[in-house]
Amino acid sequence: MKTIINKAILFLSILLVASSCDDVEHVMLNENANTTVSLSTSSVVLTEETAPDDAVTVSWTSPEFGFAAAPTYRVLIDHVGGDFTDAQAVSAGVEMEKTFTVQELNSKLLSLELEPLVEDAVDIRVETRLSSSQIFLSNPVTLTVTPYSSVLDLSTTWGVVGSATPGGWGTPDIPDLPFYTTSESGVLVAYVTLRDGEIKFRENNDWTLNYGDTGLDGTLDDGGDNIPVSAGSYRILMNLNTLTYTMETYSWGIVGSAAPNGWDGPDAQFTYNPYQNNWKAVVTLIEGEIKFRRSNDWGLNYGDSGLDGTLDEGGDNIPVTAGHYLVTLDLNNLTYTLEETDVWGLVGSATPNGWDGPDQKFLPDFGINEGFFYIHGAELIAGEIKVRQNDNWAVNYGDDGADGTLELNGANIMVEAGIYNITVNFSVDPPTITINPYQ
What we know:
This protein is mainly β. The protein folds into four domains: about 110 residues, Sandwich (Immunoglobulin-like); about 100 residues, Sandwich (Immunoglobulin-like); about 70 residues, no CATH class; about 90 residues, Immunoglobulin-like. It contains two helices and 38 strands. The strands form seven sheets. Strands 10, 11, 12, 13, 14, 15, 16, 17 and 18 form a nine-stranded antiparallel β-sheet that branches. Strands 2, 4, 5, 7, 8 and 9 form a six-stranded mixed β-sheet that branches. The chain starts with a helix and ends with a strand. About 30% of the residues are buried.
């Protein structure tokens, strides 16, 4: 009898298991999932005057994967007929469309080396990503475009070299700090941040023609003595007509209750942008007010009394909301802009603020090298670093193989104590990092 009962229980168990298996939903990925892409216009002519305006909206449909999914999207732009291996990419996150401003689209086109003021065409595709191994590409759609050139040529053959500069007395991988042209022929200007040491001025990163100052009287001498300097930020004017030079403490910065160091400073520093002859800064602000001032001093400061984007000397404080910003200061036209943006920073036990941040911010390339970010003269102690976005761990990169290739959520990067020039290149996939000693 006991044997019969045991067999009955076993039989019922098998039936229950079989019944349960019939209730399981077998989910299969639809390998033919497709995205349909559309453009708000088929042709655009881009101009510098309309840079802030919308140029084109790329929108797309959600693929039918065969199950509920949460994909992320990227818009890819390449030459017509290109294979998209070197395409310009813009993340759209989980959104189903991306609107490009004139300036943003123009930047991508210049990065593809399209010729300004010449009508051309590009292919646009949308990349749908479920995981690193499940990526879908839409069919391309074609956009006719005419880009413009926003890059000035203020470059010269002259530079600042020496123990006070990032490249020391001459490093092949680090060019001399550059001089730029001014409105006066033969008068050049350099905006430099130096450490304690010595400098000279030379042409073509070479010693064939170089100037020092024997006697330290402000007169340039061919092959003359090194010029001693103290750490700081300077504007150097070199007059090749009279063979004289001047150096003055000089910088522009953001100060205020919303700035990292409040109203007392030191100010969040701008960097000169020779491609558009203006000043730019990447900064994280809290809710409050800001102003712009020269050389960490109230002697010359700008506010905005009408909140119309026009600078007024000694003007009203500028209210801002908390966020990450790319700030542009145009001292030629006395205008400014604050553009909310994603910022990249260096974080870790080797950085000044440790793993909690705020991070040391990278500066984007201001020319046409889209996707490059730089920190010059990063002072680190022995420890570890990572690269992350917006002072947050949601998006962070490390280096699993210590080979200069960055991986999302990758391993911490070991560094020795020192001063470094650090470059991150997000124009390639996977992105890369280079860490060179500040000589």
